[in-house]
Amino acid sequence: MSGSVASSPAAPRLLSVEEARAAVLGAIAGPTEVEVAFLSEALGRVLAEPVVSTTALPPWDNSAMDGYAVRAADTTGATEDRPVRLEVVGEVRAGFAPDVEVRRGTAVRIATGAPLPPRADAVVQVELTTPLDETGEPSGPRGRDATGPLPAGCLVHAAVDPGAAVRPAGSDLAAGVTILELGRTLTAAAIALAAGAGVPQVRVHRRPSVHVLATGDEVVPAGRDLGPAGIPDANGPGLHALVDAAGGLASALGIAKDRLEDVHSRLCAAIAGNADAIIVSGGVSVGPYDVVKLAFEKLGRIDLWRVAVQPGKPFAFGVADRPDGGRTLLFGLPGNPVSTFVTFELFVRPAIRALAGHRPDRLLRPIDRAVLLESVSKSRGRRAFVRAIAERDDRGSPARDDGGRVRVRLAGGSGGQGSHVISALAAADALAVIPETHDTLEAGAEVELWWLDAG
Ligand code: AMP
Ligand code: MG
Q1: Which of 281, 290, 293, 425 for mutating ligand 1's site (highest number of atoms within 8 Å of CB)?
Q2: pTM of this prediction?
Q3: How confident is the model at residue 4 (pLDDT cuts 50, 70, 90)?
Q4: Which of 18, 46, 147, 148 is the most buried (most CB within 10 A)?
């Protein structure tokens, strides 16, 4: 492991971000168990079993256009001025089996998605035809919509090849083949693919249950009277949203007073319910009212870590045994909202993703490269995750320099980087990573960039 820094011989050694994250991930025995989920509950979840198509797609040859099903040979030589004349002998609508076949010299009006009638081998789109009445005279304009009463005949103004505007059975998917691999994350398109292949349910890992507890005698639910010294609870709702966005199933344990019994009893309830993880915000420092570490110690095995990260020191992590034989991960995050958020990003989100079944190489945010447009200062020896805003071009895309690097400035201007400044956090669209080795980076320096969830 590299990157940890002991700032003086007397100071306890700080853990590097990688060491702390490795210890968290090392405490996870494996992903949550497998369950069957309806597709409506599957977005973002990880497949524990491949998905196999139950139908070919399309299930039968069908029409790609509104028009007329024909025998291509009957249209040979047709041109704009010398159209071919066909008798219209019936119609196929989407959702209905054809009840008529296409003999020589005839056509069947057909809708997009309707099965191709027997003996037809092509479709002429309606725009290339003119409808005819019983006397053989045009009954409407050329290429009008394929709606209204069925015409007695039609003129075809162009020759078509066999297969024209026909979607052959199985041209998208065969039946009985793997269409989504084990380990695949279900995106909206993957869900559409499973449904389109006739699969209504999938086997996926259970969403990890993650309980969120805010602490602090001063912390009051948003919307309540603050009194002389209260502050609205930002972390409870914020963490709840972070958990859900990370693929967990969040539930709220409320706001505990800075009293050991209050914190302890709420944690007990969550462990008794076999929570996969508990996140506590605040009360994790070494002040006289910081009881979270004591509560964790009563419930399981715990370390109070000093991680070489800014913001985010200190940070407590441990595990508690659950009634069902599993283990609850215990996270104690610093109470300043930006510290809570950054430590969640660094340590909790990867853990939730590992529990949810994501592969080891899919736990972290994709890393981009950026160039700072202004200088930034931080503590040497700690890795800083500063809240950054990307410059945008006039289409709203991140602006990049000639080297392909995103141009970023600091969110919130001067003073915006305090660990209590939630307005700058909310304005940021990424975290820029300033390495341990520096206390200042000048404008023009290149940094790593972690994109956050876009709004
Ligand atoms: P602590 O980690 O408990 O020492 O708290 C550090 C700072 O974060 C203090 O200023 C707290 O008032 C603030 N804080 C703690 N919890 C929350 C919360 N849930 N929402 C907003 N601010 C909080
Ligand atoms: Mg506190």
Answers
A1: 281
A2: 0.91
A3: very low
A4: 46
